[in-house]
Design goal:
Layout: H1 2-41, H2 46-64
Helix pairs in contact: 1-2
Length: 72
């Protein structure tokens, strides 16, 4: 029985690591889109773009800490 539990645990751990990698890649893509839109198209100063990026990072980190939404 312990072998089954270990197998399930390792499978879930591997899945969560893969999900974390995917989320990091997606965030890089989203960050590039945000930087392009606000920095280039809207001509917002770098400080404004960085503020938006900081709040975006904070929001994503908060979502990963909610019960039932543990990604990493």
């Amino acid at each position: 029985m312990l072998d089954v539990a270990d197998t399930i645990y390792e499978t879930c751990k591997t899945y969560l690591i893969q999900q974390g990698k995917l989320l990091c890649i997606l965030f890089v893509f989203i960050g590039l889109c945000i930087a392009f839109y606000f920095g280039f198209l809207q001509k917002m100063p770098l400080s404004g773009v960085m503020l938006i990026m900081a709040w975006t990072i904070l929001g994503i980190l908060a979502l990963t800490r909610l019960p039932g939404t543990e990604f990493v």
